[in-house]
Amino acid sequence: MLVVGTSARSSGTYIDLLPGWPTAVYFGLFSAWAGAMPLIVLIVSVEELRHGQLSVPVMASFGLFVSLAVWGLEEAASILAMGLLSAVSRAREFVELRVELNEASYSYLLILATVCAALPVVQRAVETLGVDYWSRSCRRLRPMWADLIVSCPEVVLGQPSQRISPRARAHRMCIEVRDSISLLGRHLDADVSAASAAVALADAAHRRSRGCPARAFTRLPLASSGDLKSELGILAELSKDWPPSSKPSRVSEKAR
Fold it and tell me: Is 238 domain-assigned?
């Protein structure tokens, strides 16, 4: 492309507007490269969508990739047509329109690239302020989680050597809460209902902390989840009814 573009550089004009075989070769090479990448993205995205079993956000992401890939293929075909027509001095109106669109596309792509480059910075700022989804989820779980790991200290995972993200912290908390629930199944009453699950679990944690003997295992009536967000939602619902640990009434009479 550098070689065939020499004549355009020496004349100081766009190669898009120069007739001759170098223009056709230049845009043939450019369109082959510009069309190959969206074609690969399109094939992979369609295959993933055909396989199914994807969450709605993932399906939406692949749908966006398909749209961008189709747009990229259209651009590659349109630019190739422009190059061929310009090489034989035909359809000058279309060629000039395509040149204007190319200039506008560069500005739009520059803006898009700037936004993409700024996203990690914005994400880090949001996480630092603690207003992201994962940090807020951790705060909702913390009272219940703190009481559970006191009664079941063996469930606490090893501390990482580096700072972990709020998402990873939420994942760790979910694991530790679920492990605590499994251990406390030996201290639950036999007639636990979904409405009283939080209080019953708090009672079981109190019994275990006091060293009360274990009983037959009772499963806490708590739904299972398929991903981290749904797990956080389930545990957040449980934590809504968690008794404040500072109040003596948090533990029922049967737990004392």
Answer: yes
| Two tokens, residue 113 | 């690239």
Cα–Cα distance measured from residue 230 to residue 208, given in angstroms and rounded to the nearest whole number? 28
1 lies in some domain: no
User: Are residues 248 and 210 located together in one domain of the fold?
Assistant: yes
pLDDT, tens only, 189-198: 888 888 899 9
The rounded distance, in Å, linking the Cα atoms of 201 and 181 is: 7
Residue 120 belongs to domain spanning: 6-129
Structural domains counted in the chain: 2
In degrees and rounded to multiples of 5, residue 182 shows phi and psi of -65, -45
Q: What is the pTM of this model?
A: 0.62
Q: What is the mean pLDDT of residues 94-111?
A: 82
* 192: its two tokens: 């636990």
Last residue of a domain, one of 78, 112, 129: 129
Residue-wise pLDDT for 10-39, tens only, equals: 777 777 777 888 888 888 888 998 899 999
Q: Report whether 77 contacts 17 (CB < 8 A).
A: no
Separation between Cα atoms, residue 128 and residue 242, nearest integer Å? 27
**11 and 62, same domain (yes or no):** yes
Residue with the bigger pLDDT between 127 and 179: it is 179
> DSSP letter string over 178-225?
HHHHHHHTTSS-TT--STTHHHHHHHHHHHHHTTPPP-S---------
Task: Give the pLDDT of residue 182.
Answer: 94
Contact 94, 35 (CB under 8 A): no
Question: Is 23 inside a domain boundary?
Answer: yes
Residue 233 in tokens = 């939602």
Contact 41, 35 (CB under 8 A): no
How much is the pLDDT for 242?
92
Q: CB of 180 within 8 A of CB of 155?
A: yes
